[in-house]
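Cont'd.
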Amino acid sequence: MRKLWIGLTYLVFFLLIAAPLGKMAIGAFSEGFGGFWNALTRPEALHALMMTGLVVIVVTLLNTLFGIMMALYLVRANWINRRLKGLLNSLVDLPYAVSPVIGGLMIVLLLGPDSALGAIFEGIGLKIVYAIPGMIIATLFVTFPLMVREVMPVLQEIGSQQEEAASTLGARGWTIFWKVTWPSIRWAVVYGVILTVARSLGEFGAVLVVSGNIMNKTQTATTLVYQDVENFNVTAAGGIALVLAAFSAGLLLLMEWTKRRKEVQ
Amino acid sequence: MNSLLRHKGWTWGFRTTILLYFVVLIVLPILGVYYNSFSLGFGNFVESISDPIAWKSVLLTLKLAIIATLINVFLGTMIAWVLIRYHFIGKALLNSLVDLPFALPTAVGGLMILLLLGPGSLIGKAAAALGFEIVFHQPAIVIAMVFVTFPFVIRAVQPLLEELDPSEEEAAYTMGAKGTRVFWHVILPSMAPGMISGGMLAFSRALAEFGAVVLVAGNIPGRTLVSSVFIFGEVESDNPVSAAAVSVILLTLSFLILWLINMLQMRGRRS
Amino acid sequence: MHVEVRGLNKHFGDFHAVKDVNFTITKGHLIGLLGPSGGGKTSILRMLAGLETPDNGEIIFHGQTVNNLPPQERGIGFVFQNYALFKHMTVFDNIAFGLKVKKVSKTAIRDRVMELVELTGLKGFEKRYPHQLSGGQRQRVAFARALAPEPQLLLLDEPFAAIDAKIRQELRAWLRELIERVGITSIFVTHDQDEAIEVADEIMIINQGQLEQKGTPWDIYKEPKTPFVATFIGESTLIEDASEVKGFKGAGDGKPTKALIRPEYIEVGNLHEFKMASATEKGVVKHLHFRGSEWLVEVEVNGHKLVTYRSLEKETLQPGQDISVLVHRAYLFNDERSWIQENNLKEDPMPIFI
């Protein structure tokens, strides 16, 4: 009985994860290492990877900052009414419930060339949809809950007494945050950063809708994979996908390591 | 300088910035979708929805998401059980591999499935010889959904099993209960909350999934066109109102599920 | 620091946690805020510290209203119930925190911290982290940390609640001595009356958000101002109708009046032990408990069960024995007032003048 269950588990993992991964790796090298290298060094591939990198950096920075502050407010702020806090708290999870495509659609509807806001921005020469700003906004939307949800439980667990103690000892806002709060939440923040990087690296639906997937302009690594598949260029798609998968696996390892650090704390 | 920094205006401005960021980024777009789909009147909304391609895509999505969820509840519970209760070689590795579908870009997941099961592959050929097709048909969509929602149930059930007091089980055995009986009456009920909440999360994610599905589905209206892909198509063909109408249905469904999960968790915390 | 509080009120939602509290505290005194859990003691303390904002009322330190001052500027030290030590800092860094914030020079910080480490008996533990210390040691670190910036007022929230009973006793004496030596005005919150009586110069009894009575432990014990204080402090037995007790007939001038009787108000013994036999009443010994230094005697009188103590020097009583009981005085109260009354039969009806 026991052996059967373990065997079944291995089988599921093999079929669902190992086999597809392996097959993709083989596919990426089906034209030898040269084919893999060519797929990666195509100008559009390099540009797409650069775009992905840019989006990841900007989004991670913004959402880390705002996510930590939002978590602090939702847990600590006494200037927000309790009911309002409950409402805000449940609103944080909304992006989880929204399909990325719909997330992208929202931004097109709100800021697209046909919308009032979009027209205003276009008037001052700022293109949002089918350009970088839109892609960043879409990814910000999708990844917003990650940091907040990592930091909030830690803040709740440590309680506010250490911070109050610091304030009775004469410390003010920033000093309290850096000297008292930060050391307790830093591993949760690191974990949140990894999650945000992983998610923004892999974001596809929202970006595809918002970016218009214009080669060498708004194409990211994931939307390039999509386009390669649509063009039946499976080897090239496999090359890019393999790089993305390797990156994700690295992030996963980092996550495991951080999780252990978090538990030690 | 210091007194300038401590001025109340700064605090106020800071707080407003954070809350505005939140409202503009999260709340406003969602309201925007609802607003847009009803902007041309309710009649127009109904018209968009009564387009057979639209409502069939919603029904198909629901059907496939339910199948994928059921598969995942079963597989996930089994794997959670094996990973907690048994010790074997490679356990730690499997345990960290569980999260891979979360870490992997969904488009990469879709590509992986496409390559493994596609017409050119070994499995694809074998299936074709047997007379049924996988990729570009419904089974592929289900597989893609199972893949991207794989971790949910496992991660929801594991902590419950870890907490389950072995003495409870032992007590049942000492009272002469047989293995299967203990499983149905002691173990399963304590795993149930995780199976339900994990299953609901998986379901809502499966409803919303786009990246993995768009690559493996044939996207034939009425047969393999799921709603998220339908929405994408409508946006591409510059028909945002119809896209918004289907989005509203999908969104409302997801919000309901999210709300249900919240309610369940709150009840769980109270009891 | 001279502390004055006027008309203090605080609501948490619909819950009226602190109701119109007024008091003044003389410089250098050690005050115990005593009362049942959830009575509003901690809220008062937190408002004094500036961690909570009063709905209305005034808090005055040294004749200056501090309502609008944040905790940082009130010049107070606060010791939290669970100490709230900075868990990622060593003992040294914990104590030095308040001084570092004030930008005191490094050598001055060193000197002050070492002085406090010495004073609190923590020498040799400076490099440890809070999780490497025992409960009592953490408590001492919390004191040292609060005292380091030389506050004018020390506030302590249930300082001994998280410590073993045995060490608690020791720490109480230590705290009392330490505060005396430093000479700082201090207020501590406790729900333990022994603790308040033993440590405090003055006690304030807080119940359901109200200040019931303020005074020295002896005054409060001797003359409780409200029925709550009378029941809360010391042991006592409640008698629903005071006039049923011999010697208290007509108490309350005909109004229904209740009586609280403390063990030391009662004398029991064989009839010959009493000088004033006419004031005594018949009773039966129900139970005897040996209490190490005396007997605890439960007697039944007219269907009421009373409790008292009896010296080991006197004749030993037996359960079931008929004895005489004299109630010297009782704490009486009705809807209008409360007062202490002596047994009116004890006044000798025929005084003999020599």
